[in-house]
Write a structure and sequence with these properties.
Length: about 280
């Protein structure tokens, strides 16, 4: 498929192409944005749709140090675990300061996602923030503006922050696991996560947050390094390299399932209490 054909299909919302499992491979099918024929439609899920737990649920607590980048992608998709090697290759080249890291992400073309998006979406907020909120990846609004969580999900996230007396950019940093918008807002593939995860890891290393809030299952499993349902991860204080980590619903999911907002509020209360304990040792 040439670039012009791809642009026309995108305008008609007919791209990426779906290929039946029993159809032979199309020459050039590795073109940017094509969904792998090994993935069933139900695998191209919303950011937080829970799947059956593929491993015994193990609560991650008191991990002595951050898991290696390769370890953190194991379990995301068994057929793509070999992509973990990409993380090690990328992490050796990751910049060590904010300015260089931003430029590196801006210039990155390490995976096919970059060719299908308008721009990379690095992150936004206070670079010395105590709070870090991590989502899955940019959507259409974020891709257009170059900032995470600026659409309807972003408005809900702002309301969630306000509910616990926080404000975007004020002691809060917001980032995503992947920095480029996946085609049709699909869930990032394991190899795409593996390639991009070192950027997030370096953001965390530079930020040194006191608390990480993972928004949705993709962010949670990428940071914790294991496959699990969102329900099994919620309500527990996890550990990312010595930093407390709490898992809650992605705002986009809450827009579709408003009945879950009460549970999200419970998660936010846990986050607020955890932060309070880390700053002065007192519970509210």
């Amino acid at each position: 498929m040439n670039i012009r054909d791809e642009e026309v299909l995108r305008e008609l919302n007919l791209y990426p192409l779906w290929v039946r499992r029993d159809m032979p491979a199309i020459p050039g099918s590795e073109a940017v944005g094509r969904v792998s024929t090994r993935q069933a439609p139900d695998e191209i899920a919303s950011p937080v749709r829970s799947k059956p737990n593929l491993q015994p649920s193990l609560t991650v607590k008191n991990r002595p140090e951050a898991a290696s980048a390769a370890d953190q992608v194991v379990g995301l998709k068994p057929d793509l675990q070999g992509a973990a090697g990409l993380v090690g290759q990328t992490s050796r080249q990751i910049a060590g300061d904010w300015a260089t890291l931003k430029q590196q992400v801006r210039d990155c073309a390490a995976c096919t996602l970059r060719a299908g998006c308008t721009q990379t979406v690095f992150g936004v907020g206070d670079e010395q923030a105590d709070w870090l909120f991590v989502g899955e990846g940019p959507g259409a609004d974020e891709d257009a503006r170059g900032e995470p969580f600026v659409g309807q999900a972003g408005k809900l996230l702002d309301n969630m922050l306000a509910a616990i007396k926080l404000k975007r950019g004020d002691n809060v940093y917001i980032a995503n696991v992947v920095k480029c918008r996946p085609p049709a807002n699909r869930t990032p593939a394991a190899d795409e996560i593996a390639t991009c995860l070192p950027y997030l890891q370096q953001q965390i290393a530079l930020l040194k947050p006191k608390l990480i809030v993972a928004l949705g299952r993709t962010a949670a499993t990428a940071l914790l390094g294991r496959e699990a349902t969102l329900g099994s991860l919620r309500g527990t204080l996890h550990d990312y390299g010595g930093t407390p980590l709490i898992v809650t619903y992605h705002p986009a999911y809450l827009l579709r399932s408003p009945a879950e907002k009460a549970r999200a509020w419970q998660d936010l209360c846990l986050a607020r209490t955890t932060m309070q304990q880390s700053t002065d040792g007192k519970e509210e």
